């Protein structure tokens, strides 16, 4: 399985990082070794001094597909989840400045939190989902999928042009504004609507 991540999919997040608004989805990958094991804390890596949380809606692919049309994309997933794309922001800035790939800043061990999964049938409209992240019981990120530049089905169409989607693949759909630094002993809890999807400790 692979983790396919989308960057710059929420306007306010693009503004807060002073990035250029893309004309197509920004796509990068994380290996399966980036997945933070269940019930394990997240350890800030020793090569970074400024690691940020980025909460994101996740989609789990349930059948093989290539060149999937947007109108058929809904048939390729049954579950919606929530996760964190941890980013070594200081390292990412150095790499971007040199025009180099981001993977060292985005795909390191433990950089992908994958919470619980819910059937998409639990929701009236997956394009109007509230989701949020609390750090030490304080709301730090609050988003709604209606604010995505590219909605879930459009992302599946776009990504499947380049990569065959396989059963178990997970798409990280982008983060809203409010990303910020994590510190040792921080407690992070993610929610879709009012359902808690994960809870982790930072070490």
Describe the structure.
It is a single chain. The protein is α+β, with helices and mostly antiparallel strands. Helices cover 15% and strands 34% of the residues. It has helices at residues 11-16, 89-97, 103-106, 152-162; strands at 3-7, 26-30, 51-53, 55-61, 77-85, 87-88, 112-119, 130-135, 138-144, 170-172, 180-181, 187-192, 195-201. The chain is globular and about 45 Å long.
Helix-strand sequence? EHEEEEEHHEEEHEEEE
Measured as a percent range, the helix fraction is 10-25%
Widest sheet, order of strands: 2-1-10-4-5-7
Count of DSSP E strands?
13
Overall morphology: globular
N-end to C-end Cα span: 27 Å
Q: Overall mean pLDDT score? A: 95
Q: How many helices in DSSP terms?
A: 4
- Unreliable segments (pLDDT under 50, ≥5 consecutive)? none
Largest sheet: 6 strands, mixed
Strand proportion: 25-35%
Quaternary state of this entry equals single chain
Derived from helix and strand composition plus strand pairing, the structural class reads alpha+beta
- Compute the gyration radius: what is it? 16 Å
